[in-house]
Amino acid sequence: MTAPARLLSIRLQGFKSFAERTHVEFGPGISAVVGPNGSGKSNLADALRWALGEQGRALRTRKAEDVIWAGSERRAAVGMADVQLSLDNGDGLLPVDYGVVELGRRLYRSGENEYLMNRTRVRLRDLVDLLDAAHLAENAFLFIGQGMVDQALALRPEERRPLFEEVAGVRRHDRRRRKAEEQLVESEANLARVEDILAELRPQVRRLAAQAEQQLTRDEAGAALARAILQSAAARWHGLAARTADAQRQLTGARARADAALAELTTAEEAVSAVSIDLAARGDLARTRRAEHDAALSALTDARLADGRVRAELTAIDRDADRIAAETTAVVGDLERERRVLAEPEPARDLDAEAAAEAVTRALAEARAEVAALRSTTRAEDAEQAAVRRAGEARSAELETARRRLADALRRAEAERVAATEAIGRRTEAEASQTNAHVALLAAQARATE
């Protein structure tokens, strides 16, 4: 009769040479994986060891990341190695309530390890305990390699004892015993530490007990003092009741006087507000007139600057006219001399002299035209200067008017300032009255409180 298979299937992806997802199923009886060297038979056995918690001692790797597919010329590297085993647990070999148990392990290139049982994350310790309960953890006969049988037969009798202990299940209890002894040693160390802590805390406990007794005594004394204070307060309360009624009557009178003072203060504040509004309006008017005065001064300054520029230009024109007149006089003298020379008997016709005379005549005509143009320009500038002078006189009249308005505004502002000072004095008196009323009210309240 064929025995049922314990290992039902294995799924691999990214583990060593299994870059793509690979699913291998196992049937009843003996299953064999046949293939040439390098086809991945040993990698399949390594996947079984790795999924059951092997940490690299028998995986033929130098570091943990070596089990992840590193890539080839045709296929890029992957970032995770994943192996899933499906075990038949119909006979309850594993102490879990599942007929089929899936054990899996994943390793990322970041170094993170994940252990799975039925697609749920578990710790490595939980997986080892589960396999140890089924005699599958650290079992030397779970994976038998080539030459292992010959080595077992060649061992001496004392060397074969660990093998028999492993087969009989004694090694598992031995591991548990060692683990229990380690836990016992750790518990003894913790117990010694607890005793040390208790030895340190006992003096503090005695001191705290003494303090608790003192606190209890203080509480009893405080309760007696509280009872005495209550009796004294009850005796004083009856005496204070009459004084409180008297203080209440005084407080009522003080409140009436305070209300009258507040009414007077309100009237004074309204008067001060009206005076302040009037003063603000007059201040705005004074600022407006001061701005007009500043604008008139600025216009007068501009007119004076323009008058200065015109006077400078007229002076320059007069100098140019004197120069041109002198040049004209010189040219007229030269022309007279030339005429006298021409009036003499002409000994012979001199063509060069005639050409020179013609040139002098043309120059004289040009000079006369320039003199006429300068004279017309001078007349226009005289008219402009007269207009500028008239504008300056008008600006001076406006400036005088603005000065008179400014003087009037300053006089009105002074009168308003005097009126504001008087209003402030009245307001100060009203505030003093209010302060006195408030002081009287506070005194009445203090007497009422007493």
Note the total helix count: 6
Shape: flat
Mean pLDDT: 78
By DSSP, the count of extended strands is: 6
Binned strand content: 5-15%
Question: Uncertain regions: pLDDT < 50 for 5+ in a row?
Answer: 346-350
Helix content: 55-70%
Radius of gyration: 63 Å
Query: Strands of the largest sheet, in order across it?
Result: 2-1-3-4-5-6
* Largest sheet properties: 6 strands, antiparallel
What is the N-to-C succession of helices and strands? EEHEEEEHHHHH
First-residue to last-residue Cα separation = 111 Å
Structural class: alpha+beta
How would you describe what is shown here?
The chain has 450 residues and is an alpha+beta fold. It contains 6 helices and 6 strands. It has a 6-stranded antiparallel β-sheet with strand order 2-1-3-4-5-6. Mean pLDDT is 78; it is low at 346-350.
Task: Please provide a brief summary of the model.
The protein has 450 residues and is α+β, with helices and mostly antiparallel strands.
Q: What layout of secondary structure does this protein have?
A:
Blueprint: E1 7-13, E2 22-25, H1 41-51, E3 80-88, E4 100-108, E5 113-117, E6 120-122, H2 124-133, H3 148-154, H4 157-168, H5 170-343, H6 351-449
Antiparallel strand pairs: 1-2, 1-3, 3-4, 4-5, 5-6
Looking at this protein, list some descriptive labels.
flat; 6 helices; alpha+beta; 450 residues; 70% helix; six-stranded antiparallel beta sheet
